[in-house]
Description:
Blueprint: H1 11-22, H2 25-37, H3 41-69, H4 73-80, H5 87-119, H6 130-141, H7 146-163, H8 166-193, H9 199-206, H10 215-228, H11 235-240, H12 249-277, H13 286-296, H14 303-337, H15 341-365, H16 377-405, H17 407-415, H18 425-452
Helix pairs in contact: 1-8, 1-12, 1-14, 2-10, 2-12, 3-4, 3-10, 3-12, 3-16, 3-18, 4-5, 5-7, 5-14, 5-15, 5-16, 6-13, 7-8, 7-14, 7-15, 8-12, 8-14, 9-12, 10-16, 14-15, 15-16, 16-17, 16-18
Phenylalanine (PHE) binds next to helix 1, helix 2, helix 10 and helix 14.
Amino acid sequence: MSQNREQWGSKLGFILAASGSAVGIGNIWKYPSMAGQNGGGAFTIIYLACILIVGLSIVVAEFVIGRKTQLSPVGAFEQLAPNTNWKWVGFLGVAAAFVILSFYGVVGGWILKYIIDSLSGGFTELAGNTDAASVVFNEFITSTFSPIIYQLFFMGLCIFVIIKGVKGGIEKWSKIMMPLIVVLLGVLAIRGMTLEGGMAGISFLFNPRFEDLTASAIVLALGHSFFTVSLGMGTMITYGSYLNKKQNLVTSALWVIFLDTAIAMLAGVAIFTTVFALGGNPAEGPGLIFVILPSVFPQLAGGTLWGTIFFILLFMAALTSAISILEVVTAYFIDQKGWSRKKATLQFGGVITIVGVFCSFSLGGGINITGFLGMPFFDVMDYLSSKYMLPIGGMLTAIFILKKWGISEYMIELKTGMEGMNLSSSLVKIFLIISALVVAFIIFNEIYFEIAGKALIG
Ligand code: PHE
């Protein structure tokens, strides 16, 4: 615990930085397409329940561990459970950061390229033609050099922000970008709702269709609640470690979850109202963002402007998440190895960028080092992190508090800063137990699926 450890400049700055981490590519392309395809409002109800029980419990848990120890994940677990294997939970987080940021940086590069394409009027010829838009996208991501150049820019910007530190980098950028994301998305959503036929997009997204809510949709909602609030890899431990004792950790976590969910829904409204009004196809996954939208925007009056706004806000959402991932790695080398911030960020930001280059290559532009698994390296990294590393990290964090640290010690730190508010330790305990059990089930279900070829549910 160093005397001159950096701290957030304000409560608001911390909340915006943490929600900046949470609000990312996951909110803007994953939630809308998942909800649209899996029962609309019915999916949203399940998703909200998962986020309010599992998401909230683990966000609070990570904040508490970080603030108590004033250390990033490896040091934090080591300090609370010296000479035990618990520090491996911290290492798992650092490893997950490498894995996620390597492919996230590639996608960040794609977004940058789409901002430039949109600005230069490149979408115009794609108007209403999803086949052409699909060819453009596939040619781009499978080429060798072009995606890498954009990825280098994106990663360079991440490294730049992180070198500037907690207050002068992460907090400063989040305070500018988060409000901008909300305003720009709001403008796009209003634009979409005022289009003729746009409201059909809202009913696609929010009307509960319980007949479409399959068991696998429920599992999907649970898994996504982890990724979307950046849980299970110590991001929130690291951000919590720059807090003083005055912050109310429960209200902060509620703010993060509220902003994350509200922005996901706003993105859904902005996207589906526009897609439905213009007769587009509400496709799933990256296709929705990189194929459907570029063919839909140019059909709108002022389409170049709308398209550019959309990709700029997506870029900001990706950047505030990517910096939080890089900070986990940087903080490890500062806290545990005594490195300077600059050295840690440059060296490991560099290593992650190189791993990312191999992710990009694996999509068609070069070698695929996981070809023997029958999957591109890019997909392996995505799959490993979101299906295993984050849920396992989150589950172990809950088990750590219940079994090792102890709920009474945990409550002392949790209650610091929330004077006047009552919180029962049995309730906190029940939430943590439910979270651990639910996540254990998802992981088990996934492994069972891999071995038996079918899932227990889903
Ligand atoms: N929460 C981010 C998103 O929704 C992704 C992320 C995961 C960021 C894990 C940090 C850590 O895109």
